[in-house]
Design a protein that fits this description.
Keywords: Electron transport, Heme, Iron, Metal-binding, Transport. This protein is an all-alpha fold. The chain is 58% helix and 0% strand. The protein starts with a helix and ends in an 8-residue tail after the last helix. Bound molecules: heme C (HEC). Heme C (HEC) binds next to helix 4, helix 6 and helix 7.
Length: 127
């Protein structure tokens, strides 16, 4: 009898936990998402070069807490802030995000393209 109750409670807690995992933050990146984040590059070779020595260091690496490149659920709440605010945060920095994201020779236009690239599925997205 007591065992039944404990099992039911355990199952209930399990569902709550699953709900927390699935519900908040739009899901967790899986191995394939991490692999894509590490390997995807902007199609434009010049931009890819800049990306590779700046944004990629953190945005291609889950351990950095940066929204993962190419992982849409991580970017959805960011994009909802609007591109002008995102650009301002790249220029000025935001918490662990350094000002200009280590790319001192990136123009605003390039920052915009890099954001669209990371927030998209690996294509360069809207420009
Ligand atoms: C040293 C690590 C690091 C580098 C390099 C880096 N980022 Fe970030 N970035 C972060 C972290 C961490 C966050 C999350 C900041 C937060 O929300 O607290 C972030 C967040 C962002 C955001 C979301 C800002 C917002 O308002 O939500 C954008 C856009 C962004 N980065 C763009 C870039 C671009 C473009 C580059 C390359 C030019 C870049 N980042 C390089 C660590 C980095």
């Amino acid at each position: 009898m007591a065992m039944d109750w404990a099992m039911a409670a355990g199952r209930w807690l399990g569902w709550v936990w699953l709900g927390v995992l699935a519900g908040c933050g739009g899901g967790k990146p899986q191995a394939a998402d991490l692999q894509r984040a590490e390997s995807m590059r902007p199609a434009d070779a010049r931009l890819a070069g800049k990306y590779q020595r700046s944004c990629l260091i953190c945005h291609g690496n889950q351990a950095s807490q940066a929204p993962l490149a190419g992982f849409a659920p991580a970017w959805k709440p960011r994009l909802e802030k609007g591109m002008p605010l995102l650009l301002a945060h790249v220029r000025d920095g935001l918490n662990a995000m350094p000002a200009r994201g280590y790319c001192n020779d990136c123009s605003d236009e390039e920052f915009g393209r890099l954001i669209a690239f990371m927030a998209g599925d690996g294509g360069e997205g809207a420009r």
